[in-house]
Write a structure and sequence with these properties.
Elements lengths: L6 E5 L3 H5 L2 H4 L7 H12 L4 E5 H4 L3 H11 L3 E6 L6 H4 L1 H14 L3 E6 H5 L1 H7 L4 E3 L4 H13 L10 E4 L6 E3 L9 H4 L30 E4 L2 E4 L16 E4 L2 H15 L3 E4 L8 H14 L4 E6 L9 H6 L2 E9 L3 H6 L6 H13 L3 E8 L6 H14 L3 E6 L7 H9 L27 H16 L2 H11 L1 H11 L11
Parallel strand pairs: 1-2, 1-3, 3-4, 4-5, 8-11, 11-12, 12-13, 13-14, 14-15
Antiparallel strand pairs: 5-6, 6-7, 9-10
C-alpha cells in the first residue's frame, strides 16, 4: 500500500565523504531546521509533506529513492543546506546522486533548492538530473509549484523563484525571484519537528566537553535569517540576493525552544544564525526569556568580536549560552581588511578574555589562504591562535564557495577550483583550497593541516583541557587529533 503525499523534502548528506573518519563519531549531526520549517509551511498551506533526512539516517541515494517511491509524491525536493553555509556546496555531490536515483526509480517530479542551487541556479539546472531549481528562500516557490502540478497545467511562468525547462523547446527558463519574507513570525510556523528522526541527532564533541556521554538529544534553531555583512569568503546571503537580516521575535523563538525542551528533552542546542550576537534587543530578549524559564541548557552561537558587549556576558551565561564562536580569521590587519573584516589583534584578545571570564567557552575560527596571505602572515595567525588558547579552534583553508565574492574572483582570475562538489569540504580527501597571491593551494592546505596538529598537540592547550574539562576530554582530543586527514592534493 502506498502512502500518498504531495511532497517529500529530502536533506542530503554523506558524512564519510565529507568528513572522512571524523564523520563516524566526532562530527555533529544537525537537524535540518529550514527543511522542517518548509514542511510546516507547506502543511499550513494544505499540502501533505514528508521529510527524509538522508544525512541523519545515513542511507544511500537508492534507499532514499525507494522510500520516496513508496510515498508516491507529486514532487520530491532535495534541499541542500548544511551545518554551516559552506556545507551546502559540499553536499551537492550526494544531492546530485539522490536526484539521479529519484529520476530513475520514481514518477515524482524532482526539484533541488537551498543555498548552492540559489547561488548557481542555471548550472544546477543544466548539470543535475532535475526538473526544477528553487532559487531563494523557497517557501512561496514550493507552494506555487505544488499548486500548479496539482492543476495538471504545465505553465510555471507565474511561480516566483523557479527555474524549469520550456516544454516545447527544452531551453532553461526562469522567473523573477520571490520577494523575501518580511515578517517571519506571521509567515513561518514552528518547524515540523515531529517529521524528523529526533533520536538520531547529536551535538559536536566539543559542544559537550562538559558531558561527552550525552551529546544527544540535539536541537538547532534559527532566530534570524541572513547577515548584514558581506565578507568575501562567505556565501550565506546567496538565497537572499543581498546582505541583510530579518529577525524572529524573541517570544516566538523561546516558544519553539520550549517545545524542544518539553517534548524532545533537548538540552544541547545550536543557534544556527550566521550572527546571533548582533542586535542587542533581539538576542538579549531571548536571553532574558530563557533566564525566566530556568532551563539547564547547553547552547552555542556565533558572534563577531566587534558585536560582543562584555556587560551582557554574565546574563548570556545564565541563560545557558556556554560557547560563542568568533570569526577571527587572520592576525594580520592587511590580510583581514582585504577580506572586509576590520579589527585589531588587541581587540580580539580583550574580547576573548572577557568571554572566558564570564564562564563562556570560545571557539576561535581561523582562515589560512586569504588572497593577501603569505607563509609569514599565516604563521602570524597560527601564533595568535596558540596565544589565545581558546577552548576549541577551527582551522579553515580559504575556499571559493559559490555565492561568495571569492568565487567570482576565482572565475575571473582562472584559479583552479575543486572538480567535485565535495572537494569544497574542509575535511574531504578531495579538498582543493584557493591559492593566494603568494602561496600555492597545496602549500596553503599543508599549512592548514600542520597548524591543526600544532594547536591540538600544544602542551598549554592540553593543560587547558585537563584543567577545565578533565582527563577524559584531554585524552579524547589527543586521540582525535592524532588522526591525520588524507589529502589527494598532498599525495596522501
Amino acid at each position: 500500500m502506498t502512502n500518498r503525499t504531495d511532497i517529500v523534502l529530502i536533506n542530503p548528506g554523506n558524512r564519510r565523504q565529507v568528513f572522512q573518519d571524523l564523520g563516524d563519531d566526532v562530527a555533529g549531526i544537525e537537524p535540518p531546521f529550514l527543511v522542517a520549517v518548509m514542511a510546516a509551511y507547506l502543511r499550513a498551506q494544505g499540502f501533505r509533506a514528508i521529510i527524509i533526512d538522508a544525512n541523519a539516517e545515513n542511507i544511500s541515494p537508492n534507499e532514499v529513492a525507494e522510500r520516496v517511491r513508496e510515498y508516491a509524491p507529486v514532487l520530491a525536493a532535495v534541499i541542500v543546506y548544511g551545518s554551516q553555509p559552506s556545507a551546502s556546496t559540499q553536499n551537492m555531490s550526494n544531492a546530485g546522486l539522490i536526484c539521479q536515483a529519484l529520476s530513475c526509480a520514481t514518477d515524482a517530479k524532482v526539484a533541488m533548492g537551498g543555498l548552492h542551487p540559489s547561488a548557481l541556479p542555471e548550472r544546477t539546472m543544466t548539470e543535475e538530473t532535475v526538473d526544477f531549481v528553487i532559487q531563494g528562500e523557497g517557501f512561496q516557490t514550493l507552494a506555487g509549484l505544488l499548486a500548479v502540478l496539482a492543476s495538471g497545467i504545465d505553465n510555471f511562468s507565474s511561480i516566483p523563484g523557479l527555474w524549469f525547462h520550456d516544454g516545447e523547446t527544452g531551453t532553461v527558463c526562469h522567473t523573477l525571484p520571490a520577494p523575501l519574507i518580511d515578517d517571519l513570525d506571521s509567515v513561518l510556523p514552528p518547524a515540523a519537528w515531529e517529521l524528523l528522526p529526533m533520536h538520531l541527532y547529536r551535538a559536536h564533541n566539543w559542544h559537550c566537553f562538559d558531558d561527552l556521554e550525552h551529546r544527544s538529544p540535539y536541537g538547532a534553531i534559527y532566530t534570524s535569517l541572513g547577515c548584514p555583512y558581506n565578507c568575501i569568503f562567505c556565501c550565506i546571503n546567496a538565497p537572499f540576493g543581498k546582505p541583510g537580516i530579518r529577525f524572529r521575535s524573541p517570544r516566538r523563538v523561546v516558544e519553539e525552544i520550549d517545545l524542544l525542551v518539553n517534548t524532545y528533552g533537548i538540552r544541547n542546542l545550536k543557534i544556527v544564525d550566521e550572527l546571533f550576537v548582533l542586535h542587542e534587543p533581539h538576542y538579549m530578549g531571548i536571553v532574558d526569556l530563557l533566564i525566566e524559564r530556568g532551563y539547564d541548557l547547553n547552547i552555542w552561537a556565533y558572534a563577531r568580536v566587534d558585536t560582543v558587549k562584555p556587560e551582557n556576558l554574565s546574563r548570556m551565561k545564565q541563560a545557558g549560552i556556554n560557547w560563542l564562536a568568533l570569526g577571527i580569521e587572520s592576525a594580520n590587519p592587511d590580510v583581514r581588511d582585504s577580506a572586509s573584516k576590520r579589527m585589531r589583534v588587541q581587540d580580539v584578545q580583550q574580547v576573548v578574555r572577557a568571554i572566558q571570564q564570564a564562564g563562556i567557552r570560545v571557539i576561535g575560527n581561523y582562515i589560512f589562504g586569504l588572497p593577501d596571505d603569505t607563509i609569514a602572515t599565516m604563521q602570524e595567525t597560527l601564533d595568535m591562535a596558540i596565544d589565545l588558547n581558546c577552548e576549541f579552534a577551527n582551522f579553515y583553508s580559504a575556499m571559493a564557495y559559490p555565492g561568495s565574492k571569492l568565487y567570482d574572483m576565482a572565475l575571473e582570475k582562472g584559479w583552479e577550483l575543486p572538480t567535485q562538489w565535495h572537494g569544497y569540504s574542509q575535511h574531504s580527501y578531495e579538498t582543493q583550497p584557493l591559492p593566494t597571491k603568494f602561496v600555492s593551494a597545496k602549500d596553503v592546505l599543508k599549512f592548514r593541516d600542520d597548524a591543526f596538529d600544532a594547536y591540538y598537540s600544544n602542551l598549554e592547550y592540553l593543560a587547558l583541557l585537563k584543567n577545565t574539562f578533565g582527563n577524559k576530554v584531554r585524552d579524547d582530543v589527543e586521540r582525535i587529533s592524532a588522526h591525520r586527514l588524507k589529502r589527494k592534493l598532498l599525495g596522501g
